[in-house]
Amino acid sequence: MKKFSAFLAVALFLVSLSLNAQEFVFGLTDKIQYPEPNCEQQGLRLDLYGSVTVCNGITLGIANMASGDGEGFEIGGVNYNEGNYNGFQMGWLDIVMKNLNGFQLSLYNQVSGKANGAQLGGLNIAQAINGFQGGAMNIAVDMKGCQLGVINFVTRIDGAEIGILNFAKDVDGCQIGVFNYTEGSDVVQIGIINVINSDRVQIFPLINAKF
Predict the structure, then answer these.
(1) What is the C-alpha separation between 205 and 198, in angstroms, rounded?
(2) Structural domain boundaries of the chain?
(3) What pTM was estimated for this model as a whole?
């Protein structure tokens, strides 16, 4: 075991020498990090808890932080990007503070800007999304695509809401669930209780529509 540990240490050291400072990042904390704290990543990154300014490449760790843009592949307990992110995030907590082009898979997914792609998890939140949200609860302000979950909330959707409880201020498309509610006027509702609160309140079982 000691020989293997020594071999592994030497191998990592030799790998780090063969790569420049941007191609390999290793961190124990955000203060103890090779080649330096808050550096740029342009390759492989291994973290317990670390922070970089640019996150491009493959990131594996417990808490992966980036203060700027990134692209690639992140797996960790927490994946947090303050900038835009293009790629795939998987963990317990995935957060992109600007725009996402790609895919999030975790218990909690958040995109504070616009998402082009998909969110799959327990709770999915997006300011705007073109694509798909699938989870226990889905929340979006502006959506083009589909929400599939137990509870769906959206301000404006061009597409479909499918779940047990569906709430939308404006729908251009359909709602399918046990309880459907909207204030829109271009919608078809299929469910046990369907409510359209537009010019006047329409409440119908099984199917409801307004154009």
Answers:
(1) 17
(2) 33-98
(3) 0.85
